[in-house]
Specification:
about 140 residues, alpha+beta, three-stranded antiparallel sheet, 1 helix, elongated
C-alpha cells in the first residue's frame, strides 16, 4: 500500500517536472470546459482539443479519483504536449481537491485517452476538467 502511494506521488512529481520543462511563452489556453454533468462551454464551435467523453473512478483505499478523458485533436498539427486540470467540488461548491494529467505527441486529427489523477479527495460531489496548456 505504502509503495503504491509512493509510485503515484512519483508519477505526479514527474508530470509536474515535464510541465515545467515544456512551459514556454507560445502556449495556448483553451477556454473549453466539460464537467461531470456533461455541460460544455466553448468560445468557438470547435476548439483545438476537445474532451469528447469522460468517466471517473474512485479508489477508496487511496481516496483518489482517476478521470479517463477521451480527447480529439481538431488541428492539422502535431501537439507536442498538453495538460489537463481537474477541480473537485463538494456539495456546497467548495473545492476539495485538484488533479492533473498530461499527454505528449498527440497527432493531428487523432483521438487519445488521458487519465487525470486527483489524490486524497474527500467528500467530492462534482468535478470539472479543463484543458490547460497546449504546445505545438
Amino acid at each position: 500500500m505504502k509503495r503504491k502511494v509512493q509510485h503515484l506521488f512519483s508519477a505526479l512529481v514527474l508530470a509536474g517536472f515535464v510541465f515545467i520543462a515544456f512551459e514556454s511563452g507560445d502556449d495556448k489556453k483553451s477556454n473549453y470546459k466539460r464537467n461531470s454533468t456533461g455541460v460544455t462551454d466553448s468560445e468557438s464551435s470547435k476548439p483545438d482539443v476537445e474532451i469528447i467523453k469522460q468517466s471517473a473512478k474512485f479508489e477508496p483505499t487511496l481516496s483518489s479519483y482517476t478521470i479517463h478523458c477521451r480527447l480529439r485533436n481538431n488541428t492539422n498539427e502535431l501537439i507536442t504536449y498538453l495538460d489537463l486540470k481537474a477541480t473537485f467540488y463538494d456539495k456546497e461548491g467548495n473545492i476539495v481537491g485538484t488533479g492533473i494529467g498530461n499527454a505528449a505527441n498527440f497527432a493531428a486529427g487523432a483521438e487519445k485517452t488521458v487519465d487525470v489523477m486527483g489524490l486524497d479527495i474527500q467528500n467530492c460531489e462534482n468535478y470539472e476538467v479543463e484543458i490547460e496548456t497546449i504546445l505545438n
